[in-house]
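Lab manual, section 2.4: Encoding a predicted structure.

Procedure: take the sequence of the chain (191 residues), apply the prediction step described in section 2.3, and record the output as C-alpha cells. A sample record is shown.
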Amino acid sequence: MSSINHFKQNRAVHLARRDGYFEAAVAAVRQAPSGGEAEESFYGEVLFLLRVARLHARFCVRSREASGADEEFARFVALLAGSVKAVLSMLELRNAVVKDRSFNFLGSNQATLGLQAEEYQRRAAELVRALRSTLELAEESFAVLKVENEASLEASERERYDRARAHVAELMERGQHRYPIAPSLGKLGSS
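Recorded output:
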C-alpha cells in the first residue's frame, strides 16, 4: 500500500484558498480607508487575509508539483504580511500616544503629543503607499503564476480548485471566512 501525499492530494484546494485570500487582501488594500481606529481593525483584517494566504501558499509548496515561482510567491506573501504588521504598529503607536497616560512621563504637552501622533500616522500612510505600489508591481507576476498553476492541474483538480474558490467567495460574502490559525502553523517553512 503506497502512502498518500496529502499536500499533493489537496494542492488544488490550497491553491484556491491561497488565491482567494490573497486577492481579497489586495482588493481590501486598494480600497483602504483613512482615519481613526477603523484603520486598525481594517488592517487587522488585511493581515488575517494575508496570513491565511501565506499558510496555504506554504502548503502548496510542500507538494512535488510546486514550482520555484510558487516558493517565491509564498515568501512574497510573508513579506506583505510583515508590511501590514508595520502599518498596524504605527497605528497602534499613534493611538497609544493620544490615549495612554504613559507618555505624560515625558513631560510633554498635548500639542507635542499630537505632533508625535501625526508622525506615526504619516509613517503608516507611507507604509500603505509602499504596500500599494508593491501590490501593483506584483499584479502581472501573480496573474502569470495563476495561469501556470492552472496549466499544471488535471481536469479533476481544476474542478476541485473551482469548487474551493467558489466556497471561499461564499464564505467571504457571508463574513464567515475567519477562523483561528494555530500558532504552530505559522512556523511552517520558516526553517
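Check your result against the sample. Helices lie at 6-9, 11-30, 38-60, 68-99, 110-152, 155-174.
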